[in-house]
Each structure stands twice: as C-alpha cells, then as structure tokens.
Amino acid sequence: MNQVLLIDDDVELVGMFREYLEQEGFRVSCAHDGEAGARAALSGSSAIAVLDVMMPHMNGLETLRRIRARSHMPVLMLTGRGDDTDRILGLELGADDYVTKPCTPRELTARIRAILRRTNAPRGDGDGVTINVGKLSMQPAQRRASWDGAALELTSTEFNLLEVLARNAGRPVSKNDLSEQGLGRPMARFDRNIDVHLSSLRHKLGTLADGRSCLQTVYRLGYQLIRD
C-alpha cells in the first residue's frame, strides 16, 4: 500500500504536501479535522497517517488516542518547533515518529518512506523462523510478538526496535543503530525518540525472574535485551 492520509487543518499546506507526494508516486487522501481524520484512519484504506498536533476542536493528540485505541497503523506526527511536551506525549501515545514544522515536502516524504520501508520490508528466508529470547517470542514475517504466550500490542516502530534488540539479545545496541534500523534514519541531536519508545516497551514487556526489566540501559553504550 502507498496510500498516505494527511490530517491537518491547514488546507494550503496539505495541498502542497499532496501535490509533492503524488509526484513521488503516492496516493493521497486528506482530512482537515481530527474527527474526520480518525474516521479515515480507522477505515483501513491508508498505509500511514500524517497527523498535525495543532488542530481546532479535536487536536492531533486526541485524534492519535482514537486511532491507537483500534489500530496500529503507522502515524507520523507534525509538531511545532520547540513543542517538546507535545512531541514526547505523541510518542508516548504511540506515534511512530515526528517531523518539526515548518518542514519541506521532501523531508516529509523521506520520513514517510523510512517508516513504510521498515513496516513493509520484504523478509528473507531466514525471517520465517521465530526469534525466542526468554519469554519473548517474535515472528518477524507475520509481525507478531508475544510474552509468555500472551500477544503484545506493539506499534510498528516498537516492533521494529524490539526486533533489532531481540536479534542482538545479550549485546548492547547503540541509540544511533536503533534509530537507523528501527526508524530508518540517523538519530538527530537531542532526539529522544528512542528513549520514549523503549520506555513504552518496558511497560509492555514482562520482567525477568528476579523482577528486573528485560530491557536494560547500558551506560554510554545504548540498550540491551537481557537473555534469561
């Protein structure tokens, strides 16, 4: 699928993004308020939603809550420069990534492609097997994960990051490697994306026999999934 859903009340900006995306081979649909955007996202016709935070009546964060209550489709947030609180809250609510406005259509398109490339990446023969790390089980080809037999409800980015950690279980993985392999882009300066996503994963994953989290921070090296 290459259908992109743009949810933003700025009609002129949406028109500019739409024209550029269509020139790049995407099919584009638009919604100009949160209510209509949530309905369009939950219809299942789009591969990814691009969602602005600042909208009247129902803002982007509430729209994201409604989407995440019923869908794990990738969501790319548009945030104002310096809106760190909204940016972090959006990630905590399940956004896959964010772009700071003002941004160019080229940058937006690159972020969309990075997310879809990771979400829809073709799997090789070796990816048909199950990855088992302690009580964690992952089937990358089916994009399914479970802990002690119970299904894990993960966003596309959380799944990507957990897969990277599972394939490197017992070894620390740097934040930049996680960003490049999980988000499809190098980590920007002062970027807290990885920290927020992994904090969410800690809450979703179970603990080790001694009560510790299976996902540990390794000082100056990154993050490590503990083998147990």
UniProtKB/TrEMBL annotation:
It holds the Pfam family Response_reg. It comes from Massilia violaceinigra. Residues 128-227 form the OmpR/PhoB-type domain. The keyword Metal-binding does not apply. The modification 4-aspartylphosphate is found at D52. It comes from the Bacteria. This is Response regulator transcription factor. Keywords: Cytoplasm, DNA-binding, Phosphoprotein, Transcription, Transcription regulation, Two-component regulatory system. The keyword Metal-binding does not apply.
